[in-house]
Amino acid sequence: MTVLSVRDLWVTYQTQGGPVPAVRGVDFDVDRGEVLGLAGESGCGKSTIAGAILRLLPDGTKVDGQVLLNGEDVLTMKVGRLRAVRWQEASIIFQGALHGLNPVQRVGDQVKEAILIHYPDRKDVDARVAELLEQVGLPGRRARDYPHELSGGQRQRVMIAMALACDPDLVIADEPTTALDVMVQAQVLGLLSRLQRDLGLAMIFITHDLSVLVDVCDRIAVMYAGKFMETGPASDVFNSPIHPYTKSLAAAFPEIGDTKYRMAPTGLGGDPPDPQHIPSGCPFHPRCPEAFDECSKREPEMYPAGEGRRAACLLVEPARVGGSVSE
User: How far is CA 298 from the centre of its chain?
Assistant: First the structure.
C-alpha cells in the first residue's frame, strides 16, 4: 500500500535576489513498511522536499505538483485538516534536537503536547509518554527532565518519541544523526531501524552520507541541483552506481584496510551550482569526469537503467545504449 506519492514537485523560494528553484520536478512513492533514502550534497533540495511534504516551508514559497498522503493532497488541504494530519499521519524528526525542543519545558510535557493536540480527552497520556520514552531507550522518569539535562543522543531519542507519539503512517528523518558523535550515531540509527521494522512505518531518511543509507534504506534517490540523478535499490546504488555523480559520492567513502584508497585521488572538484544559475543541459556536467559535448546542451530524463533503477544521464539513454533497458 502506497502511503506517500509525490508527483512533479517543484519548490521555489522567493528572495530579494529573485526566485530560487530548490526542487525541480521530482517524482517518488513510499510504500508502507518501506524506507526511502534521499542523498546528496548540502543545498541539493533534500530538506526542502521534507518541508514541502508537511507544508513547513516559509510563507511565500511557491510549491507546485502533488503530495498525496494516504491519497489526499497535502498541498490543497485547509489549515484545520493539515493540523490534523501533522503528527497523526506524518511526522518529522529534525536534525538539531536543541532547536526542536523548548529549553524551558520538561521533555515529557513536550511529548504530551503532541498527543493532547490530537487526543485532548486521553486519560492515560502520562503513561503513554513513559511508554514512548522507554520505547526509544530512555527510562520513563526522564520525562521530568529539561532538554539541557540530557545528552545529545538522549535529546534525539526524545525527538523520535515525539515523532511516534500519535502512531503516524509516515516518519521523515531529516539528517537525524548529523549532530551526533559516531558511537551515538550508530545507536540512533539502530534504534530507528528497529522501530521502523517493529511498527511497519513508511520512512524517508535524509542524509548526505550514502554509507548510512545503504544500511537503513530499501531504496535510495540521489539528488543534485534540485533533481533526482539516480534511484534504485539501496545496495545496488551504493555498490554499483550508474550516474557519475553517484559514483563520486560513493567513492568518497574509503574501504577499511584498503591501502590503495590513500594513494588514489579522491573528492569531487568544484561546487554545486547556484540554484539561480543552473547550467544548461545536465546540471552536473561542469563537474562530471565523463561529460561530453551533448551534456551541456540537453538535460537528460530519468532513463531506465536496470531492474528497479533509473538514472538521469545521457550515457544510459536507450537510444545511445542500443534499445530499451529493463526496469
Answer: 28
C-alpha–C-alpha distance, residues 279 and 257, integer Å: 39
- What is the C-alpha end-to-end distance of the chain, expressed in Å? 20
Residue where the block lists cell 513508511 = 202
If pLDDT is split at 50, 70 and 90, which confidence band does 271 have? confident
290 torsion bin: left (phi>0), alpha (psi -120 to 50), beta (else) = alpha
Distance separating alpha carbons of residues 130 and 112, to the nearest angstrom: 10
Distance CA 300, CA 312 (A): 5
Say yes or no to pLDDT of 162 above 90: yes
Q: Tell me which residue of 225, 242, 222, 317 sits closest to 280, measured CA to CA.
A: 225
Cα–Cα distance between 26 and 151 in angstroms, integer? Answer: 37
Q: Is 214 exposed, middle or buried (0-12, 13-18, 19+ CB in 10 A)?
A: buried
The C-alpha torsion from 250 through 9 and 171 to 151, rounded to 10°, is 60
* Residues 56-84, mean pLDDT to the nearest whole number: 96
Residue 321, pLDDT above cutoff 90: no
Q: How far is CA 201 from CA 93, 194, 229, 293, 305, in A?
A: 14, 10, 26, 45, 28
Of 325 and 47, more confident = 47
Single pTM value for the model: 0.91
Q: Using CB atoms within 10 A of its CB, is residue 58 exposed (0-12), middle (13-18) or buried (19+)?
A: exposed
Please give the C-alpha separations between residue 245 and each of 221, 272, 275, 288, in angstroms, as whole numbers: 12, 11, 17, 7
Report residue 263's pLDDT band, with 50, 70 and 90 as the boundaries: very low
Measure Cα distances from 154 to 143, 191, 195 in Å. Answer: 11, 12, 16
The Cα–Cα gap between 131 and 129 comes to: 5
Residue 319: DSSP 8-state: H
Q: Count Cβ atoms within 10 A of the Cβ of residue 115 and give its class: 0-12 exposed, 13-18 middle, 19 or more buried.
A: buried
pLDDT exceeds cutoff 50 at 302: yes
**What pLDDT was estimated at residue 323?**
55
Which is it for strands 310-311 and 62-69: parallel, antiparallel or unpaired? unpaired
